[in-house]
Amino acid sequence: MIYSVEMACTSHKGKIRSENQDNYVFQGEFLPEHHLSMNEIIYSEKLTDDIFAVALFDGMGGECRGELASYEAAKAFSKETFENTWDVQKMRNIMLRLNDEVCRAQNEKRICRMGTTAVILLFDNQRAWISNVGDSPAYMERDGDLNLLTVAHTDAEMLKKQEIENRKPTLTQYLGIPQEEFLLEPYIDMIEIKQGDQFLLCSDGLTDMISEEEIRGVFLEQIEIVKKVEKLVKKALMRGGRDNITVILCQIKHHSEGEEKNEY
Fold first, then answer.
1. The domain made up of 3-254 is a member of CATH 3.60.40.10
2. Which of 2, 48, 76, 195 is deepest in the core (most CB within 10 A)?
3. For the whole model, what pTM was predicted?
4. Listing from the earlier edge strand, what are the strands of the sheet with 22-25?
């Protein structure tokens, strides 16, 4: 069976931040190093007999030059080519190459430290591969249930054990750690896709503002995918928009022969 994937993407700097340190790769395109909010939601549709991927990067605001780290990672990912067969090692190798590129830029510009999260969604015929480092999440809605697909690489468990409150967990893995300091171990999983599945990649500017139940509620509305992305961003802004907000939403639908593939 051939499926098509409807996709929509946007990025907003939020209400508090002076800059936008998020970046993404969508249809092979990424944002410039210095940018604020997008004035549009980008839409595209592709068939799953193609092999293609989207990715999201959230530059670390507490570090030097988070916007440069996310830009370098996005630029490097946009140059990746996707072959016919995918496996865990190939997904891992992508993350290691992205890490090398962020470290290279860091060294070239003599920056003390910079970093970015990364979350990748790759469609490979009837399968979806997911991989992440850091804490930018990916979700899947299937048959009314919303499931987190990624693992947050943070010290949250340590904070809980030591009963430390009022501190956001610190990242334990991210792109920008030299290999001689730490061997990056990205989380990787594979899912067999089915009709109606919805996949969300987002920065924590969304999930810090609205709950998973609210995200699920938007997914279940019978509205176009662009409207769903618009609603998610508006809800986050209405709650305060304390951080940059980037959203990539992908929806699986059955593709009938003769049906045109649309790209906008």
1. yes
2. 76
3. 0.94
4. 22-25, 51-58, 118-124, 127-133, 187-192
